[in-house]
Design brief:
Elements (H helix, E strand, L loop, with lengths): L7 E4 L18 H6 L4 E3 L3 H4 L10 E5 L2 E6 L4 E2 L1 H14 L5 E4 L11 E5 L7 E4 L2 H9 L4 E4 L6 H23 L2 H10 L1 H7 L1 H12 L6 H15 L6 H12 L8 H15 L6 H13 L3 H4 L23
Parallel strand pairs: 1-2, 1-6, 3-7, 6-9
Antiparallel strand pairs: 3-4, 4-5, 7-8
Helix pairs in contact: 3-4, 6-8, 7-8, 7-10, 8-9, 11-12
Bound molecules: iron/sulfur cluster.
Iron/sulfur cluster binds next to α2.
């Protein structure tokens, strides 16, 4: 655990922190509970923050006269202005946040796939969109890891989320050091992780670190951070992961038998067709890296991007990525 910097993660307050849901309930989410010891949590309930009590009549997002409104049908009251003002001021003041976990489906916290009702008094169908607070977070933090607790039951989404928050926290430490030497070390230990996510950004980031134009450290760190965020915008593709694992295999393939090679390649194939998660071929390759004590690969974050206590193989199956 010591080798990982604790990420700062915003989590909706009803996800295990307070009984603040409209009906007075709290949601004990297994993933969030497991994550708590490994992150610094930041938590609020936007609905309570704008003065709504517990319990309260449910609110919903509606479209009325082409405008999104936060509406409480039972009382016929609107909270649009209050929630917009609170979301703006709270989120703009939020510093050094490495990720967000929002309550899915909430008209306030939900960041995608929220039911938006067409009409206030007379409802004529619904569409999908964002909640007020969650939507504002996506707008202000477009490259930060943002998920809801439901999506995090998908293995690939969860793995990507955890990778992003821990690399973001690690980079914050580099920024604090204000040292080119620390940035070079950061880039070096993340090379395979970057290779898996984006060859294009691996090259761009390599050039920034090489600093052939002799730029000042503040500018280098700024440029590096911008491109690092872009590098992790999408979830690494299966083929990219296999390429990285093949690359790693190149360090020890001459020292293992054909039978062993075939066994590893078979695990890559099973991962490619979805019969295995990435964890299996990765663990297999890791076992040879340890056996042959390959220092360069042992130092690569790719093989251990976050604490192993957070690895859970359960997978909810298909979720839109
Ligand atoms: S989803 Fe957000 S607004 Fe709703 S109870 Fe949870 S923390 Fe509060």
């Amino acid at each position: 655990m010591d080798k990982f910097t604790k990420p700062n993660v915003f989590i909706s307050k009803c996800l295990g922190f307070d009984s603040c849901r409209y009906n007075g309930q709290i949601i004990m989410d297994t993933f969030v509970e497991n994550l708590k010891p490994y992150v610094n949590t930041i938590t609020i309930c936007p609905e309570m923050s704008i003065g709504l009590g517990v319990p309260r009549d449910p609110i919903r997002v509606v479209i009325e006269s082409n405008e999104l409104k936060l509406y409480q049908p039972k009382t016929d009251r609107e909270f649009t202005e209050e929630m917009n003002a609170f979301s703006n001021s709270y989120l703009k003041a939020l510093q050094n946040v490495d990720g967000f976990i929002f309550k899915k489906g909430s008209p306030s916290c939900g960041y995608k796939n929220i039911k938006i009702y067409n009409g206030m008094s007379k409802v004529t169908g619904s569409v999908k969109g964002s909640g007020f607070f969650g939507g504002k977070a996506v707008e202000l933090f477009p490259y930060t890891a943002i998920e809801d607790e439901g999506r995090l039951y998908n293995y690939r989404i969860r793995d990507n989320f955890l990778t992003k928050i821990f690399i973001s926290a690690d980079f914050r430490k580099v920024k604090e050091s204000n040292s080119l030497g620390e940035l070079v070390k950061f880039h070096s230990r993340n090379k395979l992780l970057l290779m898996a996510n984006s060859q294009k950004y691996l090259k761009i980031l390599g050039k920034i670190v090489a600093n052939s134009e002799d730029k000042g450290i503040n500018l280098i760190l700024k440029e590096y951070e911008q491109n690092l965020k872009l590098a992790f915008k999408n979830i690494a593709r299966y083929t990219n992961n296999i390429n990285v694992l093949m690359h790693a295999m190149g360090y020890f393939s001459k020292n293992i038998t054909k039978k062993e090679t075939d066994f590893i390649l078979d695990s890559f194939e099973k991962y490619k067709i979805g019969k295995l998660t990435l964890n299996t071929p990765m663990t297999l390759v890791k076992s040879y890296i340890n056996r042959f004590n390959i220092t360069y690969l042992l130092e690569q974050t790719y093989f251990s991007p976050y604490p192993e206590e957070l690895i859970f193989l359960e997978d909810s199956g298909k979720v839109e990525l």
